[in-house]
């Protein structure tokens, strides 16, 4: 007769437990699948809702176009010219926030086409053209941009006349004029006070029309491209974001702070090995890109904080020391490369514009609020290009961001008292959270690291901590190796660091003390002893033999 012992009973219980675990695992997989399906449905509904909200903000281009024929007729009559206006794409949807600014902009361009482009009927007939000039406005969507072209079949822009006028006005020198290409020459017409018309009247000659066009476009995050053929006509191509309220942006980290680049201006993101960086003939640092050398600038050289960084700062980004992250930006036909510390990824953001009376910082178009409550500035691509070539020089007084190469004037400020920052390093999340709670309740600021490598990255990146509590046994880099590295760094060698570990042997204590530890605590610890030791270490003491907390 078989006899069942306690082993058989235990084996049977284990089999039953394994079956229950398998059933629970199957249930978890089912719930996970259901949750993923709910998440997909939620994303789909959110996308439809966002598209509906975006459409509610859009109006047809005809609301602008139908107001232009009268302006064309009045201006043509004033100058004794004949002009016809043709509009294509009346049903193209435009962001309602652009409506009024875009109407003023289009009025200036139409005015420019008649006053500077379209010839008189006699002049046109003499050159074999129809007596009436033609102005064509075309609006359409291209990707995530709205494109508007304004063309005329008039006389076109005379590059030599533009250069001569620019030299006479002191905008450029004769040597600079000789080296300018067609695009640079055409861009001169957007300079404040520039006009090729000799006599000033109600519609032309004051040099403010095209300047207003460029200023308005910058406010709308738009660009303008000029193409002209002498004797045949001129075409202005305007590119605007599809909506001013929502856009996709590339979030990056520069100088321990986040910044977002609108995706409609991002051409490419690449990691370049340090060994591939070269210098061009002008001595600029460049990267090889598309069979040419593209100059780049570190973003932190163009923009810098003029205030102390807050807790939203990022330390210890997982970057490769042998490579740099480059973001290549595009504005019309201009490509420009910026070096950032880290590329976080693409996400959709809601744009918040800066309101008066605070001035808009140079190089920043606005800001957005992320889901975790952090405020992230949004880069102004056109102003960043102007900053890089020196066209914009603005001091940092009264702004958060300012060109770093221009020193901000010293502002006397009272010393600000801040709570000490404690860096807690432990591979156990439970220990980290308990210690964080203890120090937070005692009035400290707390930063966490999962192991010695993460802590080393944060300290090397400039984490302004005042005290470190570190475990010994951790993956990637243990506490003793971290302590050894810190002692070799002049900036970190004076930072008080205490070991908090379950290893209570004298051998480990002596190793820690020889490597420069200020204290040694064993687990389990007493909160009172830990906090008392922290206060004493902040005062510069090296702790030895503190009762049950085993500090040494």
Give me some keywords for this one.
552 residues; single chain
Structure description:
The structure is a single chain. The protein is an alpha/beta fold and 552 residues long. It is 34% helix and 26% strand. The chain is built from 16 helices and 25 strands. The strands form 7 sheets. Strands 10-15-16-13-12-11 form a 6-stranded mixed beta sheet. A hairpin with a 2-residue loop joins strand 8 and strand 9. Helix 3 runs parallel beside helix 4. It is elongated and about 115 Å long.
What is the overall number of helices? 16
Secondary structure category: alpha/beta
Query: Care to count the β-strands?
Result: 25
Uncertain parts: 307-312, 394-411, 545-552
Largest sheet, described in full? 6 strands, mixed
- The overall average pLDDT, rounded, is 82
**What oligomerization state is this entry in?**
single chain
What's the gyration radius in Å?
33 Å
Portion in strands:
25-35%
The largest sheet has its strands arranged as: 10-15-16-13-12-11
What is the helix fraction of residues, given as a range? 25-40%
* Shape annotation: elongated
Instruction: Give the termini separation.
Output: 66 Å
């Amino acid at each position: 007769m078989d006899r069942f012992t306690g082993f058989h009973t235990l084996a049977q219980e284990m089999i039953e437990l394994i079956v229950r675990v398998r059933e629970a695992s199957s249930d978890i997989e089912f719930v996970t699948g259901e949750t993923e399906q709910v998440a997909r449905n939620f994303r789909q509904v959110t996308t439809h809702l966002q598209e509906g909200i975006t459409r509610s903000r859009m109006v047809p281009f005809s609301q602008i176009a139908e107001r232009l024929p009268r302006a064309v007729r009045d201006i043509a009559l004033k100058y004794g010219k004949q002009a016809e206006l043709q509009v294509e794409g009346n049903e193209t949807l435009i962001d309602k926030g652009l409506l009024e600014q875009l109407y003023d902009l289009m009025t200036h361009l139409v005015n420019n086409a008649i006053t500077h482009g379209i010839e008189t009927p006699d002049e046109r007939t003499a050159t074999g053209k129809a007596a009436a000039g033609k102005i064509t406005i075309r609006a359409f969507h291209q990707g995530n941009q709205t494109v508007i072209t304004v063309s005329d079949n008039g006389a076109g822009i005379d590059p030599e006349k533009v250069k001569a006028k620019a030299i006479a006005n002191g905008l450029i020198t004769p040597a600079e004029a000789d080296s300018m290409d067609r695009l640079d020459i055409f861009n001169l017409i957007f300079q404040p006070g520039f006009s090729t018309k000799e006599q000033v009247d109600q519609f032309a000659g004051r040099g403010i029309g095209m300047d207003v066009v460029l200023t308005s476009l910058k406010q709308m995050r738009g660009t303008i491209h000029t193409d002209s053929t002498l004797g045949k006509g001129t075409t202005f191509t305007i590119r605007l974001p599809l909506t001013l309220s929502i856009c996709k942006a590339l979030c990056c980290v520069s100088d321990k702070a986040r910044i977002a680049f609108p995706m409609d201006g991002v051409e490419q993101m690449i990691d370049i090995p340090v060994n591939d960086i070269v210098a061009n003939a002008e001595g600029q640092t460049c990267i090889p890109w598309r069979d040419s050398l593209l100059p780049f600038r570190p973003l932190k050289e163009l923009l810098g904080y003029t205030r102390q960084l807050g807790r939203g700062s990022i330390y210890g980004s997982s970057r490769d020391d042998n490579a740099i992250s480059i973001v290549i930006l595009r504005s019309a036909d201009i490509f420009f490369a910026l070096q950032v510390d880290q590329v976080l990824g693409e996400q959709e953001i809601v744009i918040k514009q800066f309101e008066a009376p605070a001035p808009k910082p140079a190089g920043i178009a606005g800001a957005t609020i992320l889901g975790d409550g952090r405020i992230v500035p949004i880069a102004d691509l056109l102003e960043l290009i102007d900053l890089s070539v020196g066209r914009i020089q603005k001091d940092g007084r009264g702004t958060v961001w300012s060109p770093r190469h221009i020193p901000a004037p010293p502002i006397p400020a009272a010393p600000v008292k801040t709570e000490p920052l404690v860096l807690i390093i432990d591979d156990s999340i439970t220990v980290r959270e308990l210690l964080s709670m203890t120090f937070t309740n005692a009035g400290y600021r707390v930063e966490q690291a999962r192991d010695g490598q993460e802590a080393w990255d944060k300290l090397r990146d400039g984490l302004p901590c005042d005290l470190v509590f570190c475990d010994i046994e951790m993956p990637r880099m243990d506490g003793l190796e971290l302590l050894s590295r810190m002692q070799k760094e002049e900036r970190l060698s004076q930072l008080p660091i205490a070991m908090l570990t379950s290893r209570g042997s004298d051998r480990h204590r002596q190793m820690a003390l020889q490597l420069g530890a200020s204290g040694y605590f064993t687990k389990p610890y007493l909160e009172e002893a830990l906090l008392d030791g922290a206060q004493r270490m902040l005062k510069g003491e090296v702790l030895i033999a503190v009762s049950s907390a085993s500090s040494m």
